[in-house]
Design goal:
Blueprint: H1 4-11, E1 23-27, H2 33-46, E2 50-54, H3 61-71, E3 78-83, H4 89-95, E4 101-105, H5 114-121, E5 130-131, H6 137-149, H7 153-167
Parallel strand pairs: 1-2, 1-3, 3-4, 4-5
The chain binds 5-O-phosphono-beta-D-ribofuranose (RP5).
Length: 168
């Protein structure tokens, strides 16, 4: 895979706004943004361009549908969906695309995020989502990068270096 962000990083010209997004992030609410900032930071650290939209499966279903269905045609390879409470967003996104979907259950005030976790993880056969830990924003970004790295040697090297740093 030609990787614009990796190439640009070598020349110091990387601009996350201009690079074509490879990861699409969707949040059920702007209240999820503070936690999901961790995913944005992690992707930036890896040099992976992303786009972010806020649209709820319940409040903006048509927008979610259009975004998920069009993501592949825009060049996006992996999707991350973060939501809380009755968190149907990742599952609905997965219903409209063949791209891999990573779900991030948001911690909630009433049930501590167990509501979000169970809503996301118990998908029916045929429509999987890869659910990370409650508030696992960074892990979602790392997993998305690992999926991209299966077809990108430079990104794989970045992840190997990251793992080595973790072990220090
Ligand atoms: C979900 O409900 C959102 O993903 C958020 O985690 C939760 C609360 O949303 P707000 O009421 O703060 O907009 O749909």
């Amino acid at each position: 895979m030609a990787h614009a962000a990796q190439q640009a990083r070598k020349t110091g010209a990387y601009d996350a706004q201009k690079a074509r997004p490879l990861v699409g992030i969707i949040l059920g609410s702007k209240s999820d943004l503070e936690v999901m900032q961790g995913a944005l930071e992690q992707l930036e650290e890896f040099g992976v361009p992303c786009e972010l939209v806020i649209a709820s499966a319940h409040r903006n279903p048509a927008r979610v549908h259009a975004w998920a269905e069009g993501a592949g045609a825009r060049g996006i390879k992996v999707l991350i969906a973060a939501a809380g409470k009755a968190a149907h967003l990742a599952g609905v996104v997965a219903a409209y695309t063949a791209l891999p979907v990573i779900a991030v259950p948001m911690k909630t005030s009433d049930l501590g995020g167990l509501d979000s976790l169970l809503s996301m993880v118990q998908m029916p056969t045929g429509v999987p989502v890869a659910t990370v830990a409650i508030n696992g924003a960074r892990n979602a970004a790392i997993l998305a990068t690992q999926i991209l790295a299966t077809g990108d040697d430079a990104l794989r090297a970045t992840l190997v270096a990251y793992k080595e740093k973790l072990a220090e």
